Amino acid sequence: MSYVPERALICTPHSDDAEIGAGGTAAQWIKQGAEVTLVVCTNGDKGSEDPEMTSERLAGIREKEQHAAAEVLGFKEVVFLRYPDGEIEDTKEFRRDLVRQIRRVKPDVVLTTDPQRRAFYQHRDHRVTGQCVMDAVFPLARDHLNFPELKHEGLEPHKTGYIYFWGADEPDTFVDIGDTLELKMQALMKHASQVAAEREAQMSKFLLERAKEAGEAQGMDAAEGFRVVQMRR
């Protein structure tokens, strides 16, 4: 798909999920002039096998890693909502936080994880985040009577054109990332706490193969696939 938005907002459950699911697409759009903002919903304070690691220290490490990855890809901004890892809930507070970012950034496209994935196991934060992002886009960010208190922050309702869900069982839209696949991998490797040295080669091989397989089916060198929902305007 050759479409390039003027502004895009990525809402990721954890640091590193966006690079895995949409890092090449984000980099490709940025190269073509798009402004891309990243919202990280959790602080990632549980994802470690190190028995000496603490949640507080891990959260700080993961924010630093995300900033480094964002610099590689060229994100305009990174916003951390800092909900505890594994504890994202479908609450009014969380939905309001998402609506706040949508109304602030005013994206043409919002990208997030597909909550309807069934063919593969999925972290609960991914399911809840995807569903809440979809609800935030429509109807919550669009209708002025939802979260009217945000008007006091100068944030007016916004209509997003599309949602791109990564990790879909049956993607229907593919973005050519042949020119940005290497950037995607460089950004992912900045998340060193999640990609142990002994797993780096294995993870790289898996993601490279997946991108090339998706691309081959579409006549591209490499691609990322999404389930795209066009929103009512």
Highlighted features:
6 helices, 18% strand, alpha/beta, seven-stranded mixed sheet, Rossmann fold, 233 residues, single chain
Task: Kindly summarize this structure in a few lines.
The protein contains 6 helices and 7 strands, in the order βαβαβαβαββααβ. It is α/β, with parallel strands linked by helices and 233 residues long.
Structure description:
With 233 residues, this protein is α/β, with parallel strands linked by helices. It has helices at 17-31, 55-73, 92-105, 124-140, 181-188, 197-217, and strands at 7-12, 35-42, 77-83, 109-113, 162-166, 173-176, 223-230. It has one domain: Rossmann fold (3-Layer(aba) Sandwich). The protein contains six helices and seven strands, in the order βαβαβαβαββααβ. It has a seven-stranded mixed β-sheet with strand order 3-2-1-4-5-7-6, with helices on both faces. The two termini are 21 Å apart. The model has no long low-confidence stretch (mean pLDDT 94).
